[in-house]
Amino acid sequence: MIRRIVGIETEFGITSVSARGSRALGADEVARFLFRPIVERSRSSNVFLANGSRLYLDVGSHPEYATAECDGLRQLIAYDKAGERIVDDLALEAERMLAEQSILAKVFIFKNNTDSSGHSYGCHENYLVDRTTTLRDIAVELLPFLVSRQLICGAGKILTEPNGDVRYCFSQRAEHMWDGVSSATTRSRPMINTRDEPHADSKKFRRMHVIVGDSNMIEASTMLKVASTRLVLELLESGVSMSHLAIANPVRAIREISRDLNGTAEIALADGTTTNALALQREFLSAVKTYFDGGGCERPDREDYAEMIELWERALDAVESGDYSSIATEIDWAAKLQLIKAYQAKGGLELGDPKLAQVDLTYHDVRPGRGIVSLLEARGKAAKIVTDEEVEAARIEAPATTRAKLRGKFIAAAEAAGAEFTVDWVHLKAGAGTSTASNTVALLDPFVQSDERVDNLIATFSSVP
């Protein structure tokens, strides 16, 4: 599947800091203020937006934003960044509403994966696959790539071990994965979730739900994460087998890999041999380059993929050499580590110093002009993929090349008319009450961009008083 629907779901961390004399706020209360405008407008904290994306309040007081269906790399980056802006706008409005109640507080939104109490929240990737694909078999072969992928797109983390030791790791999520491939969700946190929920025609499609990834701040890291995974998935779908790389214990391996910045920690394979993360990634990269250069995957954005393959190789070279300067503007873990080392050198700080923990956290602050990555972007020290204008457009309009265009068009028309409506990933329903054939459209093909039935449904809004 060369043209593939992809989406990213991001759970954000939230907190607030009250000025002296103002009462402190818990995360639950901050979340209620954050979503008050949404609830007042939609009578729900779970809504779809006119840009085709979904915004809702997840368990644990985590705002979650799921991008609209995207079929291009740059397009996906724009909609992912739009989510940051949308949630931060809610934070700004929450600060205003709090001030009206004489509560002076700053609301912070963090695009990270762990809090100070050790809780983890996710960044999930969704890749559409053909129904004829044996999803579990593909997932098992994809697993060694995902376990070692943190070398090229981990977000980085200062980790304090139970025994008090402090170290810098590649990944924030590695410590919180408890299974390799599973259909479970809350009971077991797998790296790949195989629950059969395609959000499309179940006779034609399935959805590969990848849970293992970190939330990335630098756009190039997000793009590399998705591009490399898409290419490996295509490689496996084309019939190339990587089963010889099956890992004996993926949960143990992902933790060991995260802790070893050299990429050489010994990893036991299922066949009784051993390897390491660098070797795993090199083998996947070599297979992808052969597939890509063989002309088997012509696509409109081929140049973007070529750039990501080059960055993939450069990231592995940097890990192997121990010199991260060549990737410090593009790969999150390397950029963060460079900052931490600079603070250490300037202040003579140990890695466990609270000041460095603050640096680690502020790196993930999404507020422009306050979060570290936005400051790095302004100085040309964090690679941007899309323009501010593209992100602004993605906040307002749905992707023009997928089903999301129809959803966004329908929502915008309903809101402009003040009409009742209900939507999910597949269905559009005009009016209140029971769904019927005359007021509901099911969009089972995520690749469609036009549908006369949707136009007819929108036409009914003209009669709304």
From TrEMBL:
Residues the entry annotates as binding ATP: 54, 67, 425
Reaction equations catalysed: ATP + [prokaryotic ubiquitin-like protein]-L-glutamate + [protein]-L-lysine = ADP + phosphate + N(6)-([prokaryotic ubiquitin-like protein]-gamma-L-glutamyl)-[protein]-L-lysine
Keyword Nucleotide-binding (UniProt)? yes
**Residues involved in Mg(2+) binding:** 9, 56, 64
Any one GO BP annotation for this protein: modification-dependent protein catabolic process
Give the annotated active site: 58
Task: Describe which pathway this protein belongs to, using the record's wording.
Answer: Protein modification; protein pupylation; Protein degradation; proteasomal Pup-dependent pathway
Keyword annotations from UniProtKB, A to Z = ATP-binding, Ligase, Magnesium, Metal-binding, Nucleotide-binding, Ubl conjugation pathway
**InterPro entries per record:** Pup_ligase, Pup_ligase/deamidase
Q: Identify the enzyme class.
A: ligase
Supply the Pfam families for this chain. Answer: Pup_ligase
| EC number(s) given by UniProt | 6.3.1.19
Q: Name one molecular function that GO assigns to this entry.
A: ubiquitin-like protein transferase activity
Family membership: Belongs to the Pup ligase/Pup deamidase family. Pup-conjugating enzyme subfamily.
- Main role? Catalyzes the covalent attachment of the prokaryotic ubiquitin-like protein modifier Pup to the proteasomal substrate proteins, thereby targeting them for proteasomal degradation. This tagging system is termed pupylation. The ligation reaction involves the side-chain carboxylate of the C-terminal glutamate of Pup and the side-chain amino group of a substrate lysine.
Matching HAMAP family, A to Z?
Answer: Pup_ligase
Q: Any extra remark in the record?
A: The reaction mechanism probably proceeds via the activation of Pup by phosphorylation of its C-terminal glutamate, which is then subject to nucleophilic attack by the substrate lysine, resulting in an isopeptide bond and the release of phosphate as a good leaving group.
This chain belongs to which protein, by name? Pup--protein ligase
Q: Which organism is it from?
A: Dietzia timorensis
Name the encoding gene, please: pafA
